[in-house]
Amino acid sequence: MLALAPLQEVWAQPSEKKIGFGMSVSTDGFFSTTIAKVSVTQVSPDSQALAAGVVAGDEIVKVQDITVPGNSANKLKEHLDFVPGVPKKITFKRANGTEYDVVFTRSLAHKS
Question: Which residues touch 25 (CB under 8 Å, ≥6 apart)?
Answer without folding.
Answer: 35, 37, 38, 73
